[in-house]
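seq as requested:
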Amino acid sequence: MRNGHRLGRSFGWLWGAYGASALGTWLAFGAFPLIAIQVLHAGPAEVAALSSVGAAVGAAVAVPLGPWVEFRRKRPVLIGMDLVRFAALLTIPAAFALGVLSFVQLLLVSVVVAAADITFRAVSGAYLKTLLPAEDLLVANARFESTTWTATIVGPPLGGAAIGLLGPVATVVADAVSYLLSALGIRATGGHEPRPERREAARMRAGDLLDGWRYILADPTLRPLFFNTALFNGLVMAIDALLAVLMLGRLGFTPWQYGLAFAAPAIGGLFGSRLARPLVTRFGQHRVLVVSGVLRAFWPVGLVFLGPGTGGLLLVMGVQLGLIFCCGVFNPVCATYRLERTATDRITRTLSAWAVTTKASTALLTAVWGVLGGLLGPRTAIGLAGVLLLVTPLLLPRRAAASLAEPEPETEPEAETAPSPGRA
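C-alpha cells:
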C-alpha cells in the first residue's frame, strides 16, 4: 500500500538523516546562551543578540541561496549544508580548547548555521518531492513531524544531563556530529539525480532574489497561509521567551520544572502527527488545515493566568499539550499543501523565501516582545501576544485549492525543454 509503512530505501535513509540532525539539535538546545553566560560571562543584551541578530543575519545571508540552488542537484546541496554546519559548530569546541573562544565567534557561527538551516529546509522539500509520489508526501511529512517531537522529548533531558556532567561545549560537539551523520545518511539515499537545466539567463539577476516571494504572493491560497505561519510562529516564540523570564524569575520555578513543562507536552505532537493522515483521509486536506490552524491559536492566551506552584506548572503543561497537539496535526498537512501547491521548478526558491520570512519575523517579534515585556511586564506582554494569536486564523486559506500548481511553461517558455526537477 503506497501510504503504508514502507516508502522505500531512499526515504528510509533520508528519514534517518533527519532524525540524527533533529536529535543533535535538541541535545544542544540552549547551548549557545549557556556558553555565552557561563564561559564568556556575557550580559543579557549579548545573549539576546545571539538569538535574534544571529537568526536575522542568517536569514539575510540565505536570501540569494534559494535562486542559486534552484537549478542545481539537490542531494549534493543537502550534503554540503550538513557539512557546513558540522564544520562551523566544530570551531567552537576547538576554540574553547585553545582558550580563544569569543562572543564574536559564537555570533558568526550562529549566522552560518542559521543560513545553512534555511537553505537545507528549502532544498529538502524540493528533494522530497523528487523522491516520492504526491500521494506519499503527507505520510513522509507526518513521519518527519513525529520525529521532531520525539527528539523534543528525548533531547533536552539528555542534553541537560550532558551539560551538567561535561559542560555546554560537549553538546555542541554532539550537534556537530549529528550533521555529519545526516550528511552520510543523505549520501546513502543513492540514485541518479540529473542536473536541472538552467534558463537561458545563465547569471542570476537581482530580480531572481524575489522570485520566491512573488510566487507566494501571487497564489491565492499560499499567500494567506504564508502570513499566517510567519505571524503565528513569531508570536509563539516571543511568548516562550517571556515565559522563561516569568517562570524562572518571578514565579520561582526551578530549571527542571521549566524543562518538564515543555518536554512532556511534546508527546501531543506525536499523537497529532500520527492523526494527520487519517484526518485528511476522512475530512479532506483543506478542512483539517483550517480547523487545526484555528484550534492552535486559542491555547497560548491561557498562559496569562499562570501562577506559582503545582497548579501553575500543570497549567503550562496543559496549554503546551493542546498547542503542540494541534501543531502536530497542522504542520505536516501545511508542509504537504505547500509542496503540492508549488510548481516543481519553483520549490527551492519558494520554500527558501518562506523560511527566510519565518526566521526573520520570529527574530523581530521576539525582540519587540522583549521590549514590551520590559515596559509592561512579562505577563501583560504574553497576554497581548495571546490576543493577537486569536486573529491569526483570519489569515488561513478560506477555500480549497481548485487545482495543483505544477510548472507553468507559458510563463517561462524557455524552460519547456528542461527535464522536470520533480523527476530528477
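The longest helix spans residues 309-341.
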